[in-house]
Structure formats: structure tokens, C-alpha cells
Write a structure and sequence with these properties.
single chain; 284 residues; Rce1/LyrA-like_dom; 11 helices; globular
Length: 284
Amino acid sequence: MQEILTERKKTWNTIFLFLAIVTVLSSLFHYAIVNLYPSRIYIGGLMWCPAIATLITLKIIKRPISSLNWNWGNWKYIRLSYFIPALYGLITYILIWFLVFGSLTNGELIIDWGKELGLIGIGTLNPTLIAIIAIILLGTIEVIRASATTLGEEIGWRGFFIFELRKVLSFTGVSIFSGVIWATWHWPLIVYYGENVILELTTFYVVIISMSFIMTYYTFKSKSLWTAVIFHAVSNVYIQKILPELTIKNKGTEHWLGENGIMFAIVTCVFGIYFWRKAIKEKL
């Protein structure tokens, strides 16, 4: 009994050591993003703070880097980690279009989107074709590019953090605890750049905790951090770069749209509850 308590205490010490290091490292980039400029350099640096904190923590506790779940895992979970975030993003925007919180974009705006992406010739000829090509390129090449930064987060959050939490908490506890920490880690950006801070913080916490249930499920099932890397990258690309470009904002309904919107919070919450129940049923 005493040995079990000692191990639990050791695990919690490791968890809080990791969180302390993440906080110190992240505060530097939070300061730069808020007080200097929200450039990709600072944002990319911030996203790699959990990975750096993990490496430092492993060094302090004398555990090898190879102890992390670097294996690729089952292709089934890799495919699902692409499909699920794309699906909940699409459902979110279908509901937005159907309920007229936003409207499906028109040909002229598609052409403008094409010019931004360098598809000028195709876009001026056929808006439908440019939309298809843009979605394919963003859904593949941009996801690969985005994975370079989400890898930094996921080495920390899903590669190390949740597996430490699993030693002392249930699946539900791991998902909620890691989700709250992950969401809180973002809060300076929401507070500083948000327009309706209370609403956006509320929806953001719902989204992140819901995503935490899904990503924890796939990470534990696959025993691989790559499912989380891909899931995170796909979610960012579809909800930030693809679906908003296909949507015209309707005046007065802006709070329903985007990654901090009410609709996205509702949809991800439903998905989160499904995966929570699925994990409990499977005794994960």
C-alpha cells in the first residue's frame, strides 16, 4: 500500500514538474504574441513549448525519450484521426448553412480565395474546380505543414502528459484534467484577441475538453502520439482554413461561427460525449 502511494506521489510530482516547465516556457511566447505581434514564429514557438517541456522533464527524471509512444500505430486509427475532425467540422458548417447563421459562399469569393492560394488561372475559369482543388491541397499539403507545429503540442499533451495522468486517473479524469489544462494554456490569446471574451472562453473550453475526450480515446487505443498530431492538424485546417472560406458571415450571427463559435462547441460536445461513453463501455 505504501509503495502504491509513493508511486502515485512520484507521478504527481512529475506531472506538476512538467506543467511548471510548460508554464515558464509558454509565458515567454504568450508575452511576445500579446505585446509584440502574433506572428507565425511566436505561435510556432508556443506550440513547441509542451514538447520542449517534455524533453526537459524526461531529462530531470532520467527517463529516455524513446519511452514516448513514437510508433505509428494501427492505420485504422490514423485514418479515423483524419476522418473524425473533418467530419465534425463539416457537420458544424452544414448546420450553420442550413440554419442560416452563415451562407454558402459564391463564385466571386471562391475566385478571390483561388487568387490567394495562387490558383488564378483555374479560379477565373471555374469556381467549382478551384474550390475542389483548394480543398484537396489544404486537406493534404496544409495538413502536413500544420503537423509540424501540432507535433510540438502533441509530444507534450498526448505523447507524455495523458500517459502520466493515466497512472493516477480514470479515462474520464484524464480527459477532463488534460482538457482543462490544454484550454487554460490558450487563455491569454482568447482574452487578448477575443471580441466577446466570456462567450468565447466558454465555447473554447467546451470545444477543447470535448476534443480531449476524442483524442485521448484514439491515443490510448493506438498507443501512438501520431493519431493526436494528425487529428489536431486536420481539425485546425478544416475549422480555420477550409470551411470558413466556404462561408459568408451573416450580420448578427458571428458568434455561431468559427472555432470559438457556439455551433462548433455544440457539435464537438456531442462527439465528445459519444467517445466518452464508448471509452467507458470498452473499459479503456
